[in-house]
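User: My advisor asked me to double-check a structure prediction for Glycosyltransferase family 2 protein before group meeting. I don't want to rely on an old file, so could you generate it fresh from this sequence?
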Amino acid sequence: MISISLCMIVKDEEKILERCLKSVGDLVDEIIIVDTGSTDNTKKTAYKFNSKVFDFKWIDDFSAARNFAFSKAAKEYILWLDADDVLLEEDRQKLKELKETLDTSIDSVNMIYNYAFDKNGNVILSFRRNRLVKRVNNFKWYGAVHEYLGVHGKIIDSDIHITHKREKFSGNRNLKIYESRLKKGEELSARDIYYYANELYDHKKHDRAIEYYIKFLNRKDGWVEDKIAACGKISDSYYFTKNIEAAKKYCYKSFEYAMPRAEFCCKLGFCFLSQNKLNEAVFWYELATKLKKPDNCWGFLDDSSWTWLPHIQLCVCYHKLGDKDLSYKHNEIARSYNPDDKNILNNKKYFQSLGYE
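Assistant: Sure, here is a fresh prediction for Glycosyltransferase family 2 protein from the sequence you gave:
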């Protein structure tokens, strides 16, 4: 059986840290908590779990804080989490089994991060991250913001899910860090340009976000999954600014980097639907339903686009086209994926009033 150090960086997390540590504390052999300036009872909560607590002066650099936390670990493997992450019971059992059976020649284990959910609790955004790494390899974190852990060697894909339960938002903290770096004349890497564009997008600065996304796409370096995601964000930004043709253009551009994905088929369907081009909308939504979700994809996947979303949109399209049978059929398929959705249930009642079961 391997031994595990849990390493976390925190600040003012007294409301949620206990929830996280309750879900994983008994599965690890050591808890390292690095506090970056809490003014609440975060440290007191950490001590309840026999954590080793260290202070680290915040220098607008997440990698620096995470590397400091890793440097304090003493066990064979390091697991990292954020305070708003938890392991559900099924995943606790999977981690327990992994701990008991992991081949010590493995350098890193990646896990699925269920990052965002709809109002019914369905996962709408998930991706993989390296979560458990061999300590003696001295793997490092890179990037002041939206940091990543550089790993190499023998890496395995696990079916363990980390569940993100966000309680608060970072506000404009990350945006300020990037803009401070630009003001100092620092040259941003391709990855930084992409994530700076994301911050601009999140703050609804769409024109400037488009500018930086395009800068990123024009570079020869940069991760292909980020290129695909950038196409999606550009498309959304153009849609928000009512430039539908440009929105379509960047959906098509995503096909230069990989086979068509359901997310982009749904975006194209929505663009055509907004123009009342129903047959074209049907084409793209139907295509979305026929695609196979990529296995072990490290990029951001919108799970709804691969399940119920294209079907509920096909329900709308076929109803507008006058084909109530197909409209009903696709609402039922959508309901099989998302049985508690209010709109789908309202559609169900409507179809029942027409004599459908």
